[in-house]
Design goal:
Elements lengths: L2 E7 L3 H12 L4 E4 L7 H9 L2 E4 L7 E2 L6 H7 L2 H10 L4 E3 L4 E4 L3 H11 L4 E3 L4 E7 L2 E6 L2 E10 L14 H8 L4 E7 L2 E3 L11 E8 L2 E9 L3 E3 L1 H8 L6 E4 L6 H11 L5 H5 L5 H8 L11 H12 L1 E3 L5 E3 L6 E6 L17 E3 L7 E2 L4 H16 L1
Parallel strand pairs: 1-2, 1-10, 2-7, 10-20
Antiparallel strand pairs: 3-6, 4-21, 5-6, 8-9, 9-10, 11-19, 12-15, 12-18, 13-14, 13-16, 14-15, 16-17
Helix pairs in contact: 1-5, 1-12, 2-5, 3-12, 8-11
The protein binds flavin-adenine dinucleotide.
Length: 385
Amino acid sequence: MKKYDVIIIGGGAAGMMAAAGLAQRGRRVAVLDMGTTPGRKVAASGGGRCNITNMNANHTRYFGENVNFVRSALANTKPGDILDWMTTHNLSVTEKAPGQYFCVQGADAVVAALMDDADGVDIKYETVVQDAEFINNQFTIQTNRGNFIADSVIIASGGTSFGVLGVSDVGHKIAKKFGHKIIPLRPALCGMAVQDFDPDLAGVTTEVEIKVGREIIADSLLFTHFGIGGPAVYRASVRDFDDGIMINFCPGKDIAQIMRDAKRTMGKKSVAGVLELYMPRRLARYFAQNDERRIADMPDKDILKIANSVSQFKIDAGNIKLHNLQSAEVVRGGVSTDKISSKTMESQLQPGLFFVGEVLDIAGDLGGFNLHWAWASARVAAKYA
Ligand SMILES: Cc1cc2nc3c(=O)[nH]c(=O)nc-3n(C[C@H](O)[C@H](O)[C@H](O)COP(=O)(O)OP(=O)(O)OC[C@H]3O[C@@H](n4cnc5c(N)ncnc54)[C@H](O)[C@@H]3O)c2cc1C
């Protein structure tokens, strides 16, 4: 049986980046992946355009029990380093929102670049890792295609969301076996199933501000058949929303004052008629709740009630169900960073065992932060494994 210096479990974003770094160091490396192609989530990322990194990557854009864990890796691999890496592969970027970079040539080109760097690495496809053990000073990895042995192992098996692309919790199982704590998994960067809105609103998009904890997220919201989605909601979903969320459907405007003024200046209009000057018509009708009165005929207290529901729409945590693991871009939770060195990504419980990417209890914000974490953490492990 061929023995490798390093076996990487998972040929996704982090696994392929780690393989490239190790190949450069002349290590004998195998990547074991359950699928038939590498980097399938990379290929699907950013709707096929791969939101590859974000200039604002710092610990405040990551979520988990100890977000300070990301500091060292992020200091070692800056977003600019990823842009430089792209340049070496003749890939260019476009900046969608400030600091948010997509690959002009598309996500498949990013996968091809990763493959290019991993030249010389043994990539074993359709190889489903089942377990790992450490006996006689080496790791034995058990798979559906027999056992593989190595001095070191990098677990890069990712999160468990978006199962259609082929995912598993093997990384969490192996981590647990070696004594690591697993922080419970939940979907993140996904929509929220809520009952508060009329199903007729499905398809309507509007700019909002969502207050989650002490943060205010300004982005667009999309009404869906199950509740709410879109970037603002995705971003809220990765955060801790134990106190629920509060949505302002008319951000940057004092809608109560606007409606009071409308009584004088456009008194013949209905409430919906006034509101639709500031939001999509269907949403304006929803807030007006079939109230056909002229705004001039409405008492201020009724106006205030509607204005409050527009600008301070509260949804309690108990009424929010995350929708759902199958559609979530990432998971919150994973292998606790507690007993892992942030400087090397190596387990403090089992020398030679490394963890990188989404399998760890680190989830990034929407906007390229998750891939950046995969690249940055993988590059660290590739230096030490
Ligand atoms: C639809 C979608 C769009 C996204 N868009 C973006 C984006 O634009 N920007 C961004 O920053 N992030 C994006 N993300 C998130 C990002 O893709 C992931 O966070 C990132 O790929 C995680 O990298 P990883 O290497 O840890 O895991 P993955 O890339 O998921 O790789 C894990 C690999 O492990 C393999 N594996 C798992 N279990 C086993 C097993 N038992 N045996 C063998 N192999 C196994 C899997 O097959 C997979 O190839 C998106 C995610 C999704 C689902």
